[in-house]
Design brief:
With 294 residues, this protein is an all-alpha fold. Helices cover 71% and strands 0% of the residues. The N and C termini lie far apart (61 Å).
C-alpha cells in the first residue's frame, strides 16, 4: 500500500522483491517499473538499479544513453556504487564519449568512501597512467587498500606487485599470501597464479601435486591458462599420473577457445600422434594459426 501512495523506499523494496522473486513470482518487468518509480522520486539506490536494468535490458529494452543518465544522477547524489558504474561508462565510452579523466574522477569519488571496486580501479589507472600521471607507488598503495577491503582482483594484482617489485620492494612471501587469499575468494586468475607459485616455488616450497590441484581449479572456473597448464601436467606427469589423452583433450579445449599457446602443443599432438591419430594437415593448420598470433 505504501508503494502505491508514493513511498520511494517501499517502491524500491517492491522492486527488489520482484527482481529476486521474494514472496512473489519473479518478474523483471515489474521490478523495472518499481525501480523507475522510486528513482523518479529521488531514491539514489533505485537510480543505480534502474540504470543497471537499462544497461543490461533487464525487464526493458537496453538503453545505454539512459543508463548513463541515471548512473550520473545517482553518482551525483553520492551513491558510490553508481560512481564506479559511471566511471566504467566513461572509461569504455558506453552511452557517452570516452573520457578517462572523468572515469578517474568518479573512481576517485568512490575510493574516497572506501568502495573496494573504486579503489581497485584507481590503482589500475595509476599503474597505467589513465586519466592521471602514472604512479606505481600509488597504484601499489591502492591495490593494497582495495585488497584489504576484500576486492579479489586487487588481491591478485597486489600479489603481482609483490612478485615483480612493482611500486614496492619485491616480497615473494607476500605475493604467495595474496595469491592464496584471492584464489580462496574464487578469483580465476589468482587460482592459476597460485598454481604457478606451487610449481615454481614462489613464496612456498615446490609442490607439483598442489600445482596440479590449482591448475585443475583454474580449468574448472574457465581460466584458459589453468586449462593449458593442466594439459602440461598431464603430458609430463607433473603432480599426477601421465595421461597423453587427457593432455590432448585439454590442449584442444584451450586452443578451441582461442588460447594461442595451446595451438603449438596441439599441433605437436597431431604431428606426432600423441593422444590422437597422426594428422599432418591439422598439425599444419595449428602451426599456421599460431604463427599469425602472439
Amino acid at each position: 500500500q505504501s508503494a502505491k501512495q508514493g513511498n520511494d523506499r517501499s517502491m524500491y523494496k517492491i522492486a527488489l522483491f520482484y527482481e529476486k522473486g521474494i514472496a512473489c513470482e519473479k518478474d523483471l518487468q515489474m521490478a523495472f517499473y518499481w525501480y523507475e518509480q522510486s528513482a523518479k522520486l529521488g531514491n539514489k539506490t533505485a537510480m543505480n538499479d534502474y540504470a543497471l536494468c537499462l544497461e543490461n535490458g533487464n525487464g526493458c529494452l537496453q538503453d545505454l544513453d539512459q543508463a548513463f543518465y541515471w548512473y550520473k544522477q545517482a553518482a551525483e547524489r553520492g551513491n558510490e556504487v553508481a560512481a564506479v558504474n559511471l566511471g566504467i561508462f566513461y572509461e569504455f565510452g558506453k552511452g557517452c564519449t570516452q573520457d578517462l579523466d572523468q572515469a578517474f574522477y568518479w573512481y576517485q569519488k568512490a575510493a574516497e568512501v572506501e568502495d573496494p571496486r573504486g579503489t581497485y580501479k584507481i590503482a589500475v589507472f595509476y599503474q597505467n597512467g589513465y586519466g592521471c600521471t602514472q604512479d606505481l607507488t600509488l597504484a601499489f598503495i591502492n591495490y593494497k587498500k582495495a585488497a584489504e577491503l576484500g576486492d579479489s582482483n586487487a588481491m591478485n594484482d597486489l600479489a603481482l606487485c609483490y612478485e615483480c617489485g612493482t611500486g614496492c620492494d619485491m616480497d615473494l612471501d607476500q605475493a604467495f599470501y595474496w595469491y592464496t587469499k584471492a584464489a580462496e575468494c574464487g578469483n580465476s586468475v589468482a587460482i592459476t597464479n597460485l598454481g604457478y607459485c606451487y610449481e615454481n616455488g614462489i613464496g612456498c616450497e615446490i609442490d607439483f601435486a598442489k600445482a596440479f590441484y590449482w591448475f585443475q581449479k583454474g580449468d574448472e572456473v574457465g581460466d584458459l591458462r589453468g586449462t593449458y597448464n593442466l594439459a602440461l601436467c598431464y603430458e609430463n606427469g607433473k603432480g599426477c599420473k601421465e595421461d597423453i589423452d587427457q593432455a590432448f583433450n585439454l590442449y584442444l579445449k584451450a586452443a578451441t577457445k582461442g588460447f594461442v599457446a595451446a595451438m603449438n602443443d596441439l599441433g605437436l599432438c597431431y604431428e606426432l600422434g600423441q593422444g590422437v591419430s597422426v594428422n599432418k594437415e591439422e598439425a599444419f593448420r595449428c602451426y599456421e594459426f599460431g604463427s599469425k598470433h602472439e
